[in-house]
Amino acid sequence: MFEAIERLYSSQSPPYKNALGEQPFTLLSPVSWTSRVEAYWAHVDYIVNAAKARGIACFITPAYMGFGNNTNGDGWVTDTDAAIAADLQNYGAYLASRYPQGNVVWVMGGDYAGTQAQRDKQWNIAIGIRSVNGGALITGHPARADGDGWSLWGPGGQNYTGFNVNCVYTNEVDVASESALAYGRAGPMPAVLLESRYEGEQSSTTNDMAQQCMQAYLSGCSGYFFGNKPVWSFGAPDVGSIIVGGGIGVAATLGGHLDTPGARAMAHIGTLMRSYPWQLLQPRKDTSLVSTALGSGQAATCPALSSDGQFAFVVKNNASSITVAMTAFAKGSVRTRWFDPTSGTYSAVSGSPFSNTGSQTIAHPGNNTSGGPCWVLVVD
User: Fold this and answer.
1) Where does 185-231 show beta strands of DSSP type E?
2) pTM of the model
3) Is the pLDDT of residue 241 over 90?
C-alpha cells in the first residue's frame, strides 16, 4: 500500500518530490490536478509494473486525506476541498488509464474519512477512475476509531457507487471483532485488514503480529497488511510529535528492517494459507467447530471451517485447552497439528489422527518460538 503522491513523510525538500527531485504536478500551491509531470509518474509506473511481475497487488491512495483530520498537514484534503470536481475526475481518469494492469486497488480517504462534504469531493477521483475502468476495485481507509470503510463509503454510509472492497482499521485488541463485523456486512463485500499494530512500535511482539494476522483471516478478512516501523516511511525524518522513521534513511531501512521476525512470521503464515484453498474458510463463532469459550480481544480464539468440511484452522492466543467437534469434518480420519506461525513449524497432537466422531479436547502446546501463546490448530 502506498501513496501516489506524498505530502509530508519524506526525506526530500519539499517532501512531495521524489528522490530525483521530480514532483507529481507542475504546480503544488494550488495543486494543478490536470497538469502532471511525466517523469514523476514514470517512476510510479515502474513500481506498479515491478509489483505485478512479482505477483503483488498495489493498494494506492491517490490523495491521502491526512491522519487525525490532517492536523499535521500530512494529507491532501485541503487541496481536494479547494479543487473543482471536473479536475479531480480528470485526475482519476488519468490514473485509471495509466494503471490498467489489474493489480491495483484504489484507496480513498487515508487515516481519516473526512466529513461527508469532503468525502463527496474526494470521491470525484473515484468517479474519474470508474469512467475509464467500470470494474475498478475501490476501498476507503477511515480513522482507526471508525472500524471499517463500509460504514462510511459503503451501504452503511453514503453508499458511493463503485465502493466494492471493504477495509478494517483497528487496534490489535479489536481485530477479531471488527473483522467479524466486516465479514457480516451486506453485499457481501470482501474486506481486508488494512491497518492494525505495527512491528517496531507500541512494544509489539512477533506473537502480536502473528495473532492479529490470523485473527483477521479466521474472522472473515480476505487479506492482511503487515506494517513495520521504520519501513512504512522508508526511514524519513520524524515530524513534530510523530515518530516516523527516525531519519535513518532508505538504505539503512531496507538494509536492516526487511528481514525481521515479524516479516518472517508473515512469510510462514503465507505459506500456511497457500497450502490450502483458504478462500473456502468460513468463520465458526458458534459451537459447531469449537465448543469451548472463544473469549474476546487479543486472547480471542477464532475458528474457521472450510465449506466442504475438508479442513479447519483455529487460532489460539491463550494457553487453555480447546475442544473440537470432530463431526464437523467430512472424512473419517482427521489429522490434527499445531502450527507455530512465528517459526513455520508443526507439532503433532498426541493421538492424531482422530475419527470424525464425537469431540476431542486438545491441550495448548505452550509458548511459541517467539515466547508467546499464539498457535494455529490445523485440522485436515
Assistant:
1) 191-195
2) 0.95
3) no
